[in-house]
Amino acid sequence: MFDNQQINSIKGLETPFYYYDMALLEKTLDKAKNAADKHGFHVHYALKANFNKRILSLIQSKGFGADCVSGNEVSEAIATGFPASTITFAGVGKTDKEITTALEYQIFAFNVESIQEMEVIDELAGRLGHTARVSLRINPNVDAQTHHYITTGLDENKFGVPTSELEKAATAIRELKNIELVGLHFHIGSQITDLNVFKSLCVKVNEWKNWFEERGTVIKVLNVGGGLGVDYHNPDVNSIPDFEAYFDVFDRFLERTPRQEVHFELGRSLVAQCGNLVSRVLYTKSGVKKHFLILDAGMTELMRPALYQAYHKIERVSDENEEGVKLNYDVVGPICESSDSFGKEVSLPISKRGDLIAIRTAGAYGEVMASRYNLREEIRHVYSDSI
Ligand SMILES: *Cc1c(COP(=O)(O)O)cnc(C)c1O
Q1: How many secondary structure helices (H) and strands (E) does the chain include?
Q2: Distance from residue 44's CA to the centre of ligand 1 (Å)
Q3: 219-247 in b/e burial notation, b at 16+ Cβ within 10 A?
Q4: Is residue 248 within a helix (H) or strand (E), and if so which, with residue range?
Q5: Quick check: helix, strand or coil at residue 228?
Q6: Cβ of 48 below 6 Å from ligand 1
Q7: Domains, the chain, with CATH or none
Q8: Is residue 189 lining ligand 1, measured as CB closer than 6 Å?
């Protein structure tokens, strides 16, 4: 992954840090944008995956919209230069203050997750003398076939309006004077690698779109959310997700009129592969049954393995020949929690104190989840084009 020149430029740096490959990010963004443009699709970038300033700026400069899940993300998107007309705001627990912020910016649409929230938005919009554009987030009960912590579209999940409530929601939309329905919104989960799941989603979207249209409601926008997965096991072979195949599924299976817009909210698939967490071996330790590599990075820098047993490829960063003897290591961090582990029985060249270790595919839900637990240092980052 790292060439010798890159290794030379980073090997003297204080660890741990996130290393962002800006050339790969740009290539990924261009591929995604071109694939979407081919079908006239709109893509909003989900800020929560990574709101590092340089990454946001590059994404903004490529013409993506923004998908936000807090008032601060809405403000950050505006500050970065995303036009308000391309900003969506989702989340099950929007506060009055956050809603007011978004109303004042006159964002493109709120993705509303309950009838009660719609009533609150209506009231706050009325006070400001605005009309709030909303998309109704429907929980379609589609199984994303991904980890249960990142599944969001099942009846048991807290997200969206359950289909049993849609009759009531349709009535509320008609009656609330400061609300304008622009479309329907769906987001069923994350790290979805089976494109058939998206085909099932299309079937549900068609069904509910027809349901609303039969009741005389105009649906301008079909927002199908995000969730496209990346290859955590082969980050070098599949460094860019197959956006063409992904968008083709929606083009083929989503029923729509030429005037109906299709919107996406991609997070992980745009930024995951450009990020690596670079760390140094502090200690090697052999227990009764195990060999441990103790790193200077832990769950405070990358929480995904501790939070949802996520897999990340772990590699030694070395300009030496890697063909030597290998050992199976449990690769762990320094934090006082047993869940502070990056991988068990990871086959690596025999390593020593001071070696650099890269934890791959860490650009999404990595740096943004960093914490100061154990009073750890503020997380650092470097960019491939400015070391
Ligand atoms: C998190 C989230 C996304 C982005 O999901 P990815 O799996 O990162 O593509 C999109 N829309 C909503 C509403 C989200 O909460």
Answers
A1: 11, 17
A2: 10
A3: bbbbbbbbbbbbbbeebeeebbbebeebb
A4: helix 243-253
A5: strand
A6: yes
A7: 4-17+273-386 (2.40.37.10), 22-271 (3.20.20.10)
A8: no
Is the pLDDT score of 272 beyond 80? yes
Contact 306, 299 (CB under 8 A): yes
Model's pTM, two decimal places? 0.95
Taking alpha carbons only, the member of 17, 16, 20, 40 closest to residue 28 is 20
Q: Are 365 and 378 in contact (CB under 8 A)?
A: no
**Cβ of 265 below 6 Å from ligand 1:** yes
**Cβ–ligand 1 contact at 10 (below 6 Å):** no
Residue 91 Cβ inside 6 Å of ligand 1? The answer reads no
Copy the structure tokens of residue 99: 């809603």
* CB-CB neighbours of 126 under 10 Å: 15
Predicted local confidence at residue 150, as pLDDT: 66
Beta strands in 3-93 (DSSP E): 17-20, 42-46, 65-68, 87-89
Give the position, in ligand 1's atom list, of the atom nearest the Cα of 226: 9
Give the model's confidence band at 143: pLDDT under 50 very low, under 70 low, under 90 confident, else very high. Answer: confident
Residue of 265, 268, 369 to test ligand 1 pocket, by largest number of atoms within 8 Å of CB: 265
The token pair that represents 251 in the structure block? 């083009």
Question: Pocket of ligand 1, candidates 47, 51, 67: which has the most ligand atoms within 8 Å of its Cβ, to mutate?
Answer: 67
pLDDT tens digit sequence for 228-262 = 999 999 999 999 999 999 999 999 999 999 999 99
